[in-house]
Write a structure and sequence with these properties.
Blueprint (H helix, E strand, L loop, with lengths): L2 H4 L2 H10 L3 E6 L9 E6 L2 E7 L3 H17 L8 E5 L4 E4 L5 E2 L7 H20 L6 H25 L5 H18 L5 E3 L8 E4 L4 E4 L6 E3 L6 H7 L4 H11 L5 H25 L2 H18 L1
Antiparallel strand pairs: 1-2, 2-3, 3-5, 4-5, 6-8, 7-10, 8-9
Helix pairs in contact: 4-8, 5-6, 5-9, 6-9, 7-9, 9-10
Length: about 300
């Protein structure tokens, strides 16, 4: 495709104003409807351009790029080069490396990647400032909403769960908001998983991308995907990650992580049953079964 057919006209004009001698663009979107990302090339270099799905997503991501600039090293996150709130467009610098998800790595190298990912997240969380009362209320509302979601999903799919699985999801509805209140707020990445990690094997560096879901929350929210999708079958990667993170999770954090992951699992199972997507159903069942074994 040419520049004229690949990039929307108003976006193309904006990009051309930012980069001298724009020559080409390549679609770099994730395979989902709300992902619109391009890698663009010009006489002066390359950049990534993204159209945010909503104004809220745009504001979150711009704020997170500013946070990353204060928190991480230059090679650990892209630089925000330009942003247009009217277009909801963001332009960022490219980084060396490849997306970790789907990479075939030797065991030692894989452990190193996950240790570095834990180390980076520790610094990301560690630079957070204490949230305001309004922030705390927002986090509390989010936890209550997730507890309510778990309860609604349970009503629809209870017959497909074992007694132990139902009991675990019921714990989410009863205990999650109260337990989460005991934990401090941090500025979280919001989608901390290997699809948003880059690994540059030539230089041995790890970096982080995609800040659309960032915002205040509790630290273990950034571990939910890892806990549900990866760590049950790869305890070695859990050890490597937590070694990099630099501390053990408190007992309250462990309980909240368990309940948040159970909420995700029952959501997978409900969505898969409703949309007739066997992959989601199997994922939800597998995660719930693993969590029951963990807490049983």
């Amino acid at each position: 495709m040419t520049l004229h057919t690949l990039l929307p006209a108003d976006l193309r004009e904006w990009v051309a104003d930012q980069l001298s001698g724009l020559t080409s663009a390549t679609d770099a979107s994730w395979p989902r409807n709300d992902s619109r990302v391009w890698r663009v090339h010009s006489d002066t270099g390359a950049a990534f351009v993204k159209l945010s799905p909503t104004a809220a997503d745009f504001a979150r991501e711009v704020r997170a790029y500013e946070y990353a600039a204060r928190t991480l090293a230059d090679d650990e996150a892209p630089c925000l080069l330009a942003a247009d709130p009217g277009l909801l467009a963001i332009m960022t610098s490219p980084l060396p490396g490849r997306v970790v998800r789907g990479l075939t790595l030797e065991a030692e190298e894989e452990h190193r990647v996950h240790e570095l990912a834990g180390r980076l997240l520790s610094r990301w969380h560690g630079h957070s400032t204490l949230g305001t009362v309004r922030t705390r209320e927002s986090v509390g509302a989010s936890m209550a909403g997730q507890a309510d979601e778990a309860g609604a999903c349970l009503e629809r799919i209870a017959e497909h769960l074992t007694d132990a699985q139902r009991a675990l999801v019921q714990r989410v509805t009863r205990e999650l908001p109260q337990l989460a209140e005991r934990l401090p707020t941090v500025f979280r990445h919001g989608d901390y998983s290997p699809r948003n990690w880059l690994w540059d094997d030539e230089n041995g560096t790890h970096s982080l991308i995609d800040f659309e879901k960032s915002g205040h929350g509790i630290a273990v929210e950034d571990l939910v995907w890892l806990c549900g999708a990866l760590w049950p079958t790869r305890p070695d990667l859990k050890r490597a990650f937590l070694t990099g993170y630099g501390r053990k999770l408190s007992s309250t954090e462990q309980q909240v992580l368990l309940l948040l992951t159970a909420r995700l699992a029952v959501s997978y199972l409900h969505a898969g049953s409703t949309k007739h997507e066997p992959v989601l159903v199997e994922r939800g069942r597998t995660v719930l079964a693993d969590l029951v074994r963990t807490c049983g």
